[in-house]
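Postdoc handover notes: sequence design on the structure in folder B. Input tokens:
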């Protein structure tokens, strides 16, 4: 009984840490992975460097993107910050 009463606060703290820190991070990572997996040709994205580019080709680990009409570049999928939504 004494052991249980001593361990109960630690178990409670671990449960709080799970619901406050670990679980939201897992949800965010899952949503990011789904967003990156759903990218397709023609989508506009914002890179980690802040460039707004259009996807021209989707590969397994890379994206070929058009910076402008003449220049293309190859990006690692991890460098995608978010999808770019045109604001009206």
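Designed sequence:
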């Amino acid at each position: 009984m004494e052991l249980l009463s001593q361990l109960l606060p630690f178990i409670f703290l671990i449960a709080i840490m799970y619901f406050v820190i670990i679980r939201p991070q897992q949800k965010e990572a899952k949503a990011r992975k789904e967003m990156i997996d759903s990218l397709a040709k023609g989508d506009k994205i914002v890179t980690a460097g802040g460039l707004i580019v259009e996807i021209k080709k989707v590969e397994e680990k890379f994206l070929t993107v058009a910076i402008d009409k003449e220049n293309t570049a190859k990006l690692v999928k991890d460098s995608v910050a978010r999808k770019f939504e045109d604001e009206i």
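Context for whoever picks this up: The CA atoms of residues 41 and 55 lie 5 Å apart. Don't rerun without checking with the PI first.
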